[in-house]
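Next up, a chain.

===
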Amino acid sequence: MRVSLRSHRQLAVLGFVGMLGIGGAAFAASNTVPTSNAGSGTSVVSGYVVSDVAYAPDVDMTEVGTITFAIVRTSSGIAVADLNAEVNVSVDGGTTWKTCTVVAGAATCDFTGDGVTFDSVDTLDVVAYDI
C-alpha cells in the first residue's frame, strides 16, 4: 500500500489540531486556591513587610552568625510565626537557602559554622509564604 505525501500532511495537521485541543482543555481547567500570602524579593517583599534587618557575627568575627529581622503581613499586620508561615533567606543570590525560625514576627536565620563571610554578602533575599 502506498501512502501519498498529502495523506501524511493531513494526518500531521489533524494530530497537531488534536494536541492543541487537549492542551487548551488543560489550560482551561479551573483550580480553587485558598487566599494566602506569598512573596519574594530583596528589599520589597510582596505580601509581607520586612524591617529591622541585623547581622550578628559568628565566633570568627569575619563570618555571619545570624541574621535577624521583623516580618509582618501587609494585608493584616499580623505577626508571622512558625505556626502560620515559612520564611527562608539567601545571601548568595538564591543559590542556597536557609529556613529561619520565626516567633511573634521576629525571624532568626542561623548561619553559624557555614563560613559565610560578611564581605561575600551582597543581597538578602527573603521568601515567605503561608503554611
